[in-house]
C-alpha cells in the first residue's frame, strides 16, 4: 500500500487506512467511489443533490464540505494515480480495471497536501505487465441494464507493455416520474476508456508509466423526494390560487393582492401548478407523509417523484446530467539505489452540466441549470531514500486550475411575481505551490519516530460576470462596482484575488510490540484552502471565506493473531477545527424587492470531533473470510464559537448557532462482509454478502433569532435529516479452471430499503425541502472470459 506515498505493509503503517485490492473491489461490488462507503469506517458519502449525479460529497470523521461549485474545495481529497482531482463535481468515478483503493482517515496534509483535512481517497489503475492477458465481460440486469467491458494487456518488448480498458454502461431510470413521462436516474450511456503504457528499462534505472483516459456520460436527471411542504410558504400559497382557478373554486378575475396597493387577477397564477387537482401535500414522498396525508399521495412508493420544470426553456425542462472528461498522467521513477526520484505529471479536463426542479412538485417554484468547465495541470517531484536508520521523502508540487461556472435559475416562473431569474457567471483561476518533507527515524528495529512538514502558498482569482434578471432585455450586474446597475458596454466585471499560505505537519511514534502487534500515536494538522463565492451573497455574509484549519491527535493498535487468521485494527482520534467551512442554501429579497435563490460557502466557527474506529478480519474455517468495521463519532461546535448576525424585523440580532449538530457527521457507521470460497475440481465457487449501516445525519440545519419563525425552522431542520439505514448486497460467482470463464449473479440493496443521499432545504424560502433517493434494489448477471 502507498498511504505514505511509498510502498509499505498496511499493518505497520501508523495511519488509519482501509486498503482494498482489485480482487476485493470486485468481490465487494465496489464499482464506483460511492460504494467505498460500504467498506470503510467513518466514511459517509452523499451524491447528486443540487449538483450533477457525478458529484460526491465525501465526509470522514465529520469533516465535510457540501458544495458542488467550482470555487470551494472538498475536505477529502481524491487522488488517481498520484494526481489530485480538484473538483468533486467529477468525483463519482467508475472503477474500470482498478489496481487498488485506499481510504485514509484523518488529516493527510503533509504528504498529500491541501484539502485533505478529513482524509484522502488514493486510487490507482492497473498497470501494464509483461504477460499477454485480459478479459471480456458482458452483463445484463433489471431496468434493462447493459454492461460491456474489456481489458487487453500486451507486452511490446521485454521493456515495454501496454494496457487498454474500456466500458459501456446503460440502464433505464430507477425513479418513475409521471409528470415527466420518463423515469429519473437512468443512464443513457456511459463510455469510458483508458490506455496505459509502461516502460521499464533494462539498461537504465527508469520506469515510466503513461496513462490517458476519456469518459462521456449522460443520464435522465436526479430524482427528488418531497420531504416537507411549508403550508404558509409561497409554494403552498401560489399552488392554492392556481388549483382554485383550475378547479373553478376561485373565479379568474378575483383580485390577488401582491402589496397593500397592487393586485393581480387570480388567473395569472393558473399555470403555476401543472399536476392533478388535489392538496399540495399530494406530492409528499410516502416516507415523509403522515397517515392522514397518505390517502391523497400521488406517489405509489418511495421511488416515485414529480419534479418537472415547465419554464419553456428546453435546456432546463429536460432533466439530465452530462459529463465529459479526459486526463493524461505521466509517472516517472528513477531508482538510484539509495535515492529514488519520482515525477508525477497530470492534466485533467472536464465539462459538466446538470439541471433540477428544486421542489419536486410539478409547479413553477424554481428550477435551474448549471454548467461547470474546468481544466487543471499539476507537477509533483518527490525524492526519497534511506540514510542509515533514517528514511526520508521530500518534494514540491505546482498546481494550477481554471475554468468557468454558469448557473441560470428560474424562480416563481408562471406567476406575476417572476423575477426573470439570475444568470450567475464566474471565471476562476487557482494556483497552489507546496514544499514538503517527512522523515522516519528507527531508533531500534521496533521503535520509530516520524516528523513531517509542508508549507503551501495558494492564489485564487475570480471574476463575477453575472446578471439579473437574466430574461430581461435590460439586466443589471449582480456584483462589483456596477451591482444593481445596467450592464455596461464591456459587460459586468468584478475581479478579485486572494492569497493564502499555511502549514501542514505531522509528528508521531510507533512501536512493534511483537512481529504481529503494532501500536502508534501521532498528531497532525492540515488546512482547506479559502476561496470566493460566485453566487449572490446576502448581508451579513462575506463573498469570500477563509481557510479551514484542522488539528488532531490519533492513537492506534494493529494486531494479527492465531497465525494471522484474526486481524484487528483500532484507532482513537480527537480533532479540532477552526474557521469551519459550511454551505448555505437560502433565498433572500434584494434591494429591488425580488426574491432570489442562492448557495454559498461561509466560515462557521469552531468544531470538535472525537471517536473510535475498529476494523477486523477473521478466517474461521477454510475458504471463509469475515471482515467488518464500525466507528463511533462525536461531533459538535465549540460552545460560543459560532455567533451570527441576523436581521429580524429590520433589527440586527446576535444568534448563537454553536448548539447546532455538525452536518454530514453520522454518530455510527458499520459494515460486515462474508465471503465463502469453495474449491471444486472444475473451478471455484464464491458466495458473498455484505451489510453496511450509517446512522442518521443532517445535511442542513439552521438556528433562527426570529421567534415567529422558530416552529417553521424546526420542521425544516427535521426534514433535512437523513434517517439511518442499512443496505444488504450479495453476489454468487463460479469461475471455471478451463476455460477461464466466470458466471456471476449479483443483487444490490437486496431488501429494497428506502434511503436518501442528500438534501436541498428551502422550507422557509421557496416553501419545500426535498431529499434525493438512493438506488433501489437492482439485480443482474454477468459472464466474463479471461485469458
TrEMBL record:
The keyword Transport applies. Residues 10-120 form the TonB-dependent receptor plug domain. Gene3D superfamilies: TonB-dependent receptor, beta-barrel domain. InterPro entries: Beta-barrel_TonB, Beta-barrel_TonB_sf, Plug_dom, TonB-dep_rcpt-like. Residues 305-750 form the TonB-dependent receptor-like beta-barrel domain. GO terms for cellular component: cell outer membrane. It is a multi-pass membrane protein. Keywords: Cell outer membrane, Ion transport, Iron, Iron transport, Membrane, TonB box, Transmembrane, Transmembrane beta strand, Transport. GO terms for biological process: iron ion transport. It holds the Pfam family Plug. Its main location: membrane. It is found in: Cell outer membrane. Signal peptide: none annotated. Belongs to the TonB-dependent receptor family. This is TonB-dependent receptor.
Amino acid at each position: 500500500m502507498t498511504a505514505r506515498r511509498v510502498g509499505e505493509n498496511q499493518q505497520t503503517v501508523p495511519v488509519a487506512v482501509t486498503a482494498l485490492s482489485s480482487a476485493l473491489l470486485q468481490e465487494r461490488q465496489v464499482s464506483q467511489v460511492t460504494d467505498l462507503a460500504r467498506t470503510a469506517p467513518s466514511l459517509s458519502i452523499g451524491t447528486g443533490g443540487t449538483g450533477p449525479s457525478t458529484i460526491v460529497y465525501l465526509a470522514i470523521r465529520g469533516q465535510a464540505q457540501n458544495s458542488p461549485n467550482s470555487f470551494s474545495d472538498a475536505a477529502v481529497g481524491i487522488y488517481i494515480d498520484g494526481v489530485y482531482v480538484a473538483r468533486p463535481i467529477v468525483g463519482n468515478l467508475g472503477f474500470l480495471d482498478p489496481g487498488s483503493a485506499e481510504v485514509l482517515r484523518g488529516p493527510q496534509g503533509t504528504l498529500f497536501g491541501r484539502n485533505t483535512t478529513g482524509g484522502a481517497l488514493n486510487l490507482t489503475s492497473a498497470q501494464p505487465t509483461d504477460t499477454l492477458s485480459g478479459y471480456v465481460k458482458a452483463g445484463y440486469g433489471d431496468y434493462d441494464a447493459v454492461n460491456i467491458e474489456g481489458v487487453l494487456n500486451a507486452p511490446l518488448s521485454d521493456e515495454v507493455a501496454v494496457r487498454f480498458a474500456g466500458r459501456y454502461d446503460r440502464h433505464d431510470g430507477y425513479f418513475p416520474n409521471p409528470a415527466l413521462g420518463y423515469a429519473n436516474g437512468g443512464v443513457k450511456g456511459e463510455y469510458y476508456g483508458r490506455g496505459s503504457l509502461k516502460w521499464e528499462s533494462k539498461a537504465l534505472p527508469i520506469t515510466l508509466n503513461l496513462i490517458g483516459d476519456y469518459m462521456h456520460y449522460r443520464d435522465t436527471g436526479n430524482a427528488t423526494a418531497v420531504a416537507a411542504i411549508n403550508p404558509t410558504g409561497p409554494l403552498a400559497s401560489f399552488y392554492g390560487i392556481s388549483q382554485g382557478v383550475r378547479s373553478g373554486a376561485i373565479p379568474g378575475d378575483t383580485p390577488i393582492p401582491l402589496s397593500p396597493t397592487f393586485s393581480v387577477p387570480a388567473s395569472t397564477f393558473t399555470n403555476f401548478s401543472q399536476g392533478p387537482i388535489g392538496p399540495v401535500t399530494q406530492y409528499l414522498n410516502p416516507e415523509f407523509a403522515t397517515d392522514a396525508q397518505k390517502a391523497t399521495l400521488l406517489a405509489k412508493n418511495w421511488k416515485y417523484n414529480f419534479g418537472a420544470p415547465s419554464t419553456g426553456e428546453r435546456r432546463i425542462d429536460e432533466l439530465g446530467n452530462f459529463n465529459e472528461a479526459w486526463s493524461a498522467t505521466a509517472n516517472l521513477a528513477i531508482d538510484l539505489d539509495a535515492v529514488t526520484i519520482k515525477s508525477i505529471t497530470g492534466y485533467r479536463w472536464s465539462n459538466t452540466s446538470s439541471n433540477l426542479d428544486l421542489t419536486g412538485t410539478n409547479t413553477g417554484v424554481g428550477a435551474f441549470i448549471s454548467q461547470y468547465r474546468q481544466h487543471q495541470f499539476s507537477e509533483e517531484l518527490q525524492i526519497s531514500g534511506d540514510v542509515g536508520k533514517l528514511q526520508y521523502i521530500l518534494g514540491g508540487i505546482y498546481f494550477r486550475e481554471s475554468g468557468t461556472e454558469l448557473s441560470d435559475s428560474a424562480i416563481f416562473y408562471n406567476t406575476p411575481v417572476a423575477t426573470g431569474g439570475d444568470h450567475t457567471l464566474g471565471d476562476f483561476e487557482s494556483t497552489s505551490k507546496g514544499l514538503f518533507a517527512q522523515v522516519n527515524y528507527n531508533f531500534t528495529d521496533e521503535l520509530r519516530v516520524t516528523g513531517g512538514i509542508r508549507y503551501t502558498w495558494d492564489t485564487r482569482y475570480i471574476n463575477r460576470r453575472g446578471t439579473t434578471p437574466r430574461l430581461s432585455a435590460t439586466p443589471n450586474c449582480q456584483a462589483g462596482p456596477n451591482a444593481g446597475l445596467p450592464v455596461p458596454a464591456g459587460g459586468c466585471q468584478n475581479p478579485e484575488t486572494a492569497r493564502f499560505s499555511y502549514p501542514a505537519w505531522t509528528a508521531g511514534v510507533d512501536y512493534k510490540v511483537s512481529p504481529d502487534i503494532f501500536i502508534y500515536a501521532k498528531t497532525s494538522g492540515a488546512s482547506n484552502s479559502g476561496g470566493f463565492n460566485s453566487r449572490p451573497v446576502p448581508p451579513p455574509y462575506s463573498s469570500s471565506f477563509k481557510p479551514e484549519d484542522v488539528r488532531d491527535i490519533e492513537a492506534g493498535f494493529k494486531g494479527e493473531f492465531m497465525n494471522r487468521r484474526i486481524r484487528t485494527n483500532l484507532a482513537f482520534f480527537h480533532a479540532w477545527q477552526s474557521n469551519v467551512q459550511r454551505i448555505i442554501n437560502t433565498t433572500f429579497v434584494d434591494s429591488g424587492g425580488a426574491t432570489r435563490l442562492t448557495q454559498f460557502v461561509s466560515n462557521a466557527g469552531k468544531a470538535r470531533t472525537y471517536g473510535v474506529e475498529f476494523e477486523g478480519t477473521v478466517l474461521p474455517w477454510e475458504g471463509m473470510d469475515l471482515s467488518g468495521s464500525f466507528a463511533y463519532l462525536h461531533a459538535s461546535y465549540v460552545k460560543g464559537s459560532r455567533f451570527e448576525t441576523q436581521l429580524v424585523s429590520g433589527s440586527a440580532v446576535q444568534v448563537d448557532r454553536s448548539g447546532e449538530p455538525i452536518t454530514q457527521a453520522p454518530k455510527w457507521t458499520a459494515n460486515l462482509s462474508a465471503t465463502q470460497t469453495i474449491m471444486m475440481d472444475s473451478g471455484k465457487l464464491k458466495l458473498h454478502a455484505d451489510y453496511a449501516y450509517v446512522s442518521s445525519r443532517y445535511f442542513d440545519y439552521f438556528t433562527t433569532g426570529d421567534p415567529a419563525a422558530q416552529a417553521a425552522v424546526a420542521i425544516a431542520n427535521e426534514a433535512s435529516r437523513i434517517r439511518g439505514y442499512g443496505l444488504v448486497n450479495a453476489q454468487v460467482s463460479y469461475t471455471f479452471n478451463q476455460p477461464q470463464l466466470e458466471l456471476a449473479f449479483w443483487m444490490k440493496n437486496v431488501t429494497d430499503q428506502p434511503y436518501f443521499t442528500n438534501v436541498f432545504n428551502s422550507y422557509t424560502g421557496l416553501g419545500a425541502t426535498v431529499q434525493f433517493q438512493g438506488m433501489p434494489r437492482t439485480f443482474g448477471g454477468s459472464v466474463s472470459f479471461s485469458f
